[in-house]
Amino acid sequence: MSVEFQPQSDCSKHDIEEGAAFAPRFDSNGLITAVVCDALDNSVLMVAHMNAQALSLTLETGIAHYWSRSRQQLWKKGETSGNLQTVISLTTDCDQDALCLHVEVAGNGPTCHTERRSCFYRQVSLIDGAARLTIKSE
Amino acid sequence: MSVEFQPQSDCSKHDIEEGAAFAPRFDSNGLITAVVCDALDNSVLMVAHMNAQALSLTLETGIAHYWSRSRQQLWKKGETSGNLQTVISLTTDCDQDALCLHVEVAGNGPTCHTERRSCFYRQVSLIDGAARLTIKSE
Which residues fall in a coiled-coil region (chains A, B) (predicted)? Predict the structure, then answer.
């Protein structure tokens, strides 16, 4: 069994912004952007994408599932590493074209494949007019 | 004058993940996803998109600029409302296809066009097997 989502084409702007029906706007590839935050301190851990199946599984199981664009397959984050993400809250934005998950990461393990806690480990700055990256301190 | 960004095609996987050169991966529409957080408490305020010009202006001025997909034009957030976003930090993720901005919103005003502080004001839950939205308490 999977969760059915209301098509946005059935909804008015007011329904989408203020209504109680969840009508996620998937893009032309059938994906919606998901921002993933650590429920402990709100810090952004990663940005990923979900298709309808991944979103449905996330809602049904309480464990975050995504669509891997590089591998073109369903991705139960942490299935291999053990760093599963338990969803504490799932929110959507005004036009329902983005999701925000607050999660608990199993084992407080790294989210990033580089073994860092967050994928956002580098700061962008202008140095002598050029954009450069520096590693953030945790 | 605008900031030049390194094309990802010139970079190895190691350069992209560990190097000091900023080589943002713009999508086929020339856009990169930007997660915008309140610098005060890390809460996610909105998800937007930048093209190279918006990203360059953001770095040069310290004020967040985006590309409005609905209006197909450069968007200096808050130019009309006064709720300009001063960038406190700008980070990128491991594969440099997403950005995260921590901002101070002028006047502590609303970020969302619905006059709410954050665009993520609704929680998604399964109720009797259907996905429903409820307004989050602030």
Answer: none
Q: How many structural domains comprise chain A?
A: 1
Predicted ipTM? Answer: 0.95
A44 close to B (CB below 8 A): yes
Report H helices in B19-70: 52-61
Flag the least confident range among A108-117, B82-91, B97-106.
A108-117
Cβ contact A100–B44 (<8 Å): yes
A2 within domain boundaries: no
Classify B118 as helix, strand or coil: coil
Test B131 with A43 for CB contact under 8 angstroms.
no
User: Among A17, A44, A46, which would you mutate to test the B interface (most chain B Cβ atoms within 10 Å of its Cβ)?
Assistant: A44
Strand runs (DSSP E) across chain B, as ranges?
32-38, 44-50, 65-68, 73-76, 85-92, 98-105, 122-127, 130-135
CB contact under 8 A, B19 and A123: no
Q: Is B3 within the bounds of a domain?
A: no
Q: Which of A42, A98, A125 sits opposite B41 (nearest CB)?
A: A42
CATH code of the domain in which A43 resides? 3.10.20.810
CA-nearest of A32, A9, A30, A4 to A96 is A32
Contacting residues of B for A122, CB less than 8 Å apart: 91-92
Strand duo B130-135 + B65-68: pairing = unpaired
- Domain assignment present for B34: yes
Look up the pTM and report it: 0.96
Task: Assess contact for A37 and B118: CB atoms under 8 A.
Answer: no
Q: What is the three-state SS of A5-42?
A: CCCHHHCCHHHHHHCCECCCCCCCCCCEEEEEEECCCC
